[in-house]
Every structure is written in structure tokens, then in C-alpha cells.
Amino acid sequence: MSTLLSLENVTTGYGPSQVLYGMSFAIRLGEAASLLGRNGMGKTTTLRAMFGQLPIWSGEIRFLGERINGMPTERIAQMGLALVPEGRQIFPNLTVEENLIAFSANRSGSAEPWTLERVYAMFPRLKERASNMGNQLSGGEQQMLAIGRALLTNPHLLVLDEATEGISPLIRREIWTVLGRIKESGQSILVIDKYLKELIRVTDHHTFIEKGRNMWAGDTATLTNSPELWERYMGV
After folding, report:
1. Are strands 3-14 and 58-63 parallel, antiparallel or unpaired?
2. Of 79, 119, 71, 62, which is closest to residue 96 (Cα–Cα)?
3. Using one digit for the tens of pLDDT, what is the confidence trace for 141-188?
4. Which among 203, 213, 194, 85 has a CA at the least distance from the CA of 149?
5. DSSP notation for 148-217
6. Which of 161, 199, 177, 183 shows the shortest CA–CA distance to 82?
7. What's the order of all strands across the beta sheet hosting 205-210?
8. Domains of the chain as residue ranges with CATH
9. N or C end: fewer C-beta atoms under 10 angstroms in the chain?
10. CB environment 117-142: b (16+ within 10 A), e (fewer)
11. Distance (Å, whole) CA 185 – CA 178
12. Residue 116 to residues 103, 146, 174, 200, 232: CA-CA distances in angstroms?
């Protein structure tokens, strides 16, 4: 299985404050991976580095075999790296359908691309609300919209930052079910989320981050049988 994205000894931070200290991990084509850790340990900073929103002080980030250090965010997105951001960031004054098609593309060159109809089949509630404005949706519906919008760019890698934060348990279960179906479709994904028991059902490989360093990496079977890791890196 070929490597899709890799970080090698990445250091960065904000102004004089260093946050990442040699962060390294890799995601392979077709893999569903997670990046885990308590709040404030560097997960969001890692994403900002990946998407060109922070300058890399040292180390290297490669996507599709190409070094992306220093590339502008829009160029990285055009290569097929898509983010479902924390806070959703949908367009409140566009309809659901307008939000979905605003940036639709086939950036991965897929022979079976995500289409509007396919997203509506995945999220029937969005089809029902197609003519509603973005600001008329519930938090859970907005999250569905953010995921559908990212899928319609047909990315090589779909990144979800706190995909189920701040939504009802019922909608949260629905989104985890959908993420499982997205994985089964062959879509490569990286998920950051605090609901570890649900997350490990839909992801294959996991990396724990603490104080800007990757502290442990392994597969779902190993993590499932190692509750001490959950407590060490996720416990409060």
C-alpha cells in the first residue's frame, strides 16, 4: 500500500512558541487513520501545518509523493487534500445545495466520483433541506453538510477535525455510521475526535500525540487490547 501523506520530523509553532517537536506519521492509500491526544497537545497545529496555514520550521511534509512545505493552502487543496474543519464553517447565506456544489470537483480523478446524488443518498436529510439556507440547519445537519461538501471535491485524503463535537448523540451515531460507509467506499480518511470507542470502529491505524510529539502508533487490534494507552494519552 503506497504512502499518501507523510510528516517527517516536523517542527513549527506560533511566533516564538514551539508546538510541534519532530512530529512524524504517515497515512497510506485507502487507509482510515486517526490522530489522537488530549486538548492542547498539537493536533490542530499538525493540521494547520499539513494545510499550509503555518510555516514549517524544519522537517518535511509530502503528499502524493510531492513536498508540500511552503505551498499555499489553495494549491494543497487543489491537489486533493480536503478538510472538514472544527466549527464546520459552512456558508450561512447559501442554500444547502449551493454549499455542496460551490467547490465540487474531481481532484482525485476518480472513475466513480462523489456526486450530488451520491451525497444526498448518504445524507437523505440534506436532500430534504436542499433549498434551506445554511444558517437554518441544526448543528448536526451543518456537520453533514460540511462532510458532504468536502466529499464533493473528490479528495485523495479527507481530514475530519472533531467531526462529532457539539452535536446530539443521535446525530453523532448517524455520522459515525456514515464515516464507516465512506471508509468502505475506499476513501482515505484522517479523523481527529475524542470519542475513541466509536472512532476505532471506523479507523485502521492510530497515532497518539503528546506535547507535539508522536508517542505511539499502531493498529486497531493493538489499541483495542491496550486500555492503558487510552488512559495515558486520552485520560484527563
Report:
1. antiparallel
2. 119
3. 999 999 999 999 999 999 999 878 878 888 888 889 999 999 999 999
4. 85
5. HHHHTT--SEEEEESTTTTS-HHHHHHHHHHHHHHHHTT-EEEEE-S-HHHHTTT-SEEEEEETTEEEEE
6. 161
7. 81-84, 157-161, 188-192, 32-36, 205-210, 213-219
8. 3-234 (3.40.50.300)
9. C
10. eebbebbebbeebeeebbeebeebbb
11. 11
12. 12, 13, 19, 28, 42
pTM of the entire predicted model: 0.92
Q: Is the dihedral of CA 50, 52, 56, 62 positive or negative?
A: positive
β-pairing, 205-210 vs 188-192, is: unpaired
On whether the CB atoms of residues 21 and 192 are closer than 8 A, the answer is no
Residue 189 and residue 159 in contact, taking contact as beta carbons nearer than 8 Å: yes
Residue 211: which residues within 8 A CB-CB, separation 6 or more? 21, 41, 42
Per residue in 79-124, pLDDT (tens digit) is 999 999 877 788 888 999 999 998 899 999 888 899 999 999 999 9
30: left (phi over 0), alpha (psi -120 to 50) or beta: left
Residue 32: what residue type?
A
What angle separates helix 139-151 from helix 169-184, to the nearest 10 degrees?
A: 10
Cell of 211: 506535547
Other beta carbons within 10 angstroms of residue 154's beta carbon come to: 21
